[in-house]
Specification:
- This protein has 3 domains: 1-101, DnaJ domain (Helix Hairpins), CATH 1.10.287; 117-163 and 221-268, Urease metallochaperone UreE, N-terminal domain (HSP40/DNAj peptide-binding domain); 273-383, HSP40/DNAj peptide-binding domain, CATH 2.60.260.
- 26% of the residues lie in helices and 26% in strands.
- It has helices at 6-9, 18-32, 41-57, 60-69, 90-101, 108-113, 137-142, 287-292, 351-362, 373-383; strands spanning 129-135, 144-155, 171-172, 181-188, 191-198, 207-208, 221-232, 241-244, 260-266, 273-275, 278-286, 294-300, 303-309, 318-321, 337-344.
- It has a 4-stranded mixed β-sheet with strand order 10-11-15-14.
- A hairpin with a 2-residue loop joins strand 12 (294-300) and strand 13.
- It is elongated.
- The structure holds zinc ion (2 copies).
Length: 385
């Protein structure tokens, strides 16, 4: 399939500024992001296409080459000098998006399920790390800075990550002459085929380590630990993650490290249930408080608040405390706290209380108006059932 014009993909004019390129890409990427279109292959293609266009147009040098030679500038072996831009896959696209626009909102499993893509040629990139971070609702409401001690594979000190024992540099692989790949030409009835595969002798690295490092046994990396400083913005929640680029495992034989992502896990709260940026809590009131009205104390994330309940409050009534919820992650303002009043009916009555309830029962006005449909409709609405 012929490649579409990069400017056309991003719906830009040829004279678009760098800022316009960025904005246009963001618009497209958010629209076609795999998170928003789970399982939609067409959207995934558009996301990859837009990201590829962005990677070229945001870079002045590449953009100039593209303006001059078109897609030919990036084909393997072309004179443009940017060969090897083919095979742009989804994890590359997601990584590019995450690098420039942060990771909130997405595609975690797509990105980290697949792991780092190893280059056929040369040292391999380290694997990505996924770190779970349990947080309380209070921390998420204010945002928090956390220091995380993580276990990861780090560059070996002895060999500096090369895998070769000091004094014995790695040698060029005699099988592939350092290319890391071998080409086999086969002829058939249909013509000539070139089959390229990773060199088995050096496993695609192009180098043979004659004297492996005694500490890492030639891998170039060892088990270690690092401290990660991460800032969790206010309003984050379950499933959000903070990307920390380059904080994953070290690559093999001096390859670049993978990325880390800190995945937030919200701890359950004793009082509040979170619903988006709103908080829900149930507060019991007595039959008398419900009938006569009262002032009650309700918990909020910032301490107790006094709330007036009107006379004749029905069980299930919701009182909305504006802006007492969780801050919105993107943008200003915050959610509300929804206090659900539940009328508590006494289970054990003294003789005197029993007398009083009997007296009330005898009075017609204390019975629910069975004939009044609107009352039950209203109740149903309040309860949300
Ligand atoms: Zn080789
Ligand atoms: Zn080593």
């Amino acid at each position: 399939m012929a490649k579409r014009d990069y400017y056309e993909i991003l719906e830009l004019g040829r004279d678009a500024s760098e800022d316009e390129v960025k904005k246009a890409y963001r618009r497209q990427a958010v629209k076609f992001h795999p998170d928003k279109n789970p399982g939609d292959k067409a959207a995934e293609e558009k996301f990859k296409e837009a990201t590829e266009a962005y990677e070229i147009l945001k870079d002045p040098q590449k953009r100039q080459a593209y303006d001059q030679y078109g897609h030919a500038a990036f084909q393997q072996g072309a004179g443009g000098g940017f060969g090897g831009f083919g095979g742009f896959d989804l994890s590359d696209a997601l990584r590019a998006f995450m690098r420039d626009f942060g990771g909130f909102g997405g595609a975690f499993d797509d990105l980290f399920g697949g792991g780092g893509r190893s280059r056929r040629n040369g040292p391999a990139r380290g694997q990505d790390l996924r770190i779970k971070l349990p947080m309380t609702l209070e921390e998420l409401a204010t945002g928090a800075s956390k220091k995380l001690r993580i276990q990861r594979l780090v560059d070996c000190d002895r060999c500096g990550g090369t895998g070769a024992e000091p004094g014995h540099a790695a040698e060029r692989c005699p099988n592939c002459h350092g290319a890391g790949e071998v080409r086999q030409v086969s002829r058939s009835f249909f013509g000539q085929f070139v089959n390229v595969s990773a060199c088995s002798r050096c496993r695609g690295t192009g180098q043979i380590i004659t004297h492996p490092c005694t500490v890492c046994r030639g891998e170039g990396r060892v088990h270690g630990a690092t401290t990660l400083n991460v800032k969790i913005p206010a309003g984050a929640g379950n499933g959000n993650y903070v990307p920390v680029s380059g904080a994953g495992h070290s690559g093999t034989h001096g390859g670049p490290p993978g990325d880390a992502a800190v995945l937030i896990e919200e701890k359950p709260h004793d009082i509040f249930t979170r619903d988006g940026d709103n908080l829900i809590c149930e507060v019991p009131i007595s039959v008398c408080q419900a009938a006569l009205g009262d002032e009650i104390t309700v918990p909020t994330l910032n301490g107790d608040e006094t709330v007036k309940i009107p006379a004749g409050t029905q069980s299930g009534k919701i009182i909305r405390l504006k802006n007492k919820g969780i801050p919105h992650l993107q943008g200003f303002g915050r959610g509300d706290e929804l206090v659900r009043l539940v009328v508590w009916v006494p289970t054990r009555l003294s003789a005197e209380e029993k007398q009083l309830f009997k007296k009330l029962a005898a009075m017609h006005g204390t019975k629910p108006p069975a004939a009044d449909r609107s009352f039950f409709e209203k109740l149903r609405q309040t309860l949300g059932v």
